[in-house]
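We emphasize that the prediction below concerns an isolated chain of 209 residues; any contacts that depend on oligomerization or on bound cofactors are therefore not represented. The input was used exactly as deposited, without trimming of termini.
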Amino acid sequence: MEEAQSAPAYGRTNWRRFAVAVGVPTVVAGGLVLALAEGALAANFTVSGKQFKLTADTLVGTGFTQYSGELDTQDPDYPGGKIPAAMSGIKSATLVGLCQSVAVGPVTLRIEAGNDANNPVKAENLLIGMSELGGNATFEDIQIGLDASTMTRDGAESHGAPGSFGQQSRTVTIENLRQKAYYTSASTFVLNGMSLKLHIGGSHECYQD
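Result of the prediction step, given as a token string:
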């Protein structure tokens, strides 16, 4: 394994494409607070279209919603400039053993935080646009089959389109979380014990497919 100082040896890496792909974890690592705009789907933003992986030993959230949505992208791999995504909103969440990674060619950016259960990662007004989610999930006071536009549990003012499928619960707990996502935002994201490493070569993603 080689670290970031060896990166110039790989002259064929498309660094502009890599910079776009790692935008979300880099912003989080820099401590920039991303504001949700009344449910975020109403906001004007465009995603890179490159997925990143996220794992956690445990996620505990209050105020959970889930519904279908679309994300705008300029990635030519998505005709029409739209990416279908499963959207999950969580009013308040804590995560223990967080890992987030994005790989482009031989380069992987990996962030870890919250390995101490007494100092977990904390997020408020969390919104995630994902393609895959796995783990052992427990929901309390769950409602399935709601009109997505009527949901309220996460505190956001807008969700899916009227008449579309949605579900929500008072709390959610997911153990051994595994997730692929295009987009994450939060009004606050506190990464206790954060570690960021840029890896060249080898396999350094948070999990393997």
